[in-house]
Amino acid sequence: MKFRENRQQSAELELAPMIDVVFLLLIFFIVTWKSARFERDISVSTPAAENAENTDRQVGEIIVNVRADGTIVLNGAEITTQTLSEKLQSISESFPDQAVILRGDQKTPYQDIVTVLDNIKRAGIWNVAFATVKPE
Predict the structure, then answer these.
(1) For 57-94, what is each residue's pLDDT tens digit?
(2) 82 within a domain of the structure (yes/no)
């Protein structure tokens, strides 16, 4: 008596779900890469602080990098102080509580940092933070 058939089913690989997952991962990595690349300007070496801590990031915060030679970089583009002032003014009018992170290089002259701070204050932005790193 034969109760069962010995049928071997071939295991087929479903491609549609695998392609969906691959595309979702690709989209995730592209989005996170794009948002993180503006924050880390490689040519800016922030100063070390003993009490430096990682704070919660706010949505849409603006990161202003000031390089050692005084060049201002906003969202990956070098800009002048006049352009910075105009952009910050328009952002401040649209979003009154906008957060700004100022990343100044260790070797940046103090006057360049003060100039950027003056532009931020003139634009009416009050939520300013300085980026630092913990000492090694």
Answers:
(1) 566 778 888 988 889 988 778 899 999 999 999 988 98
(2) yes
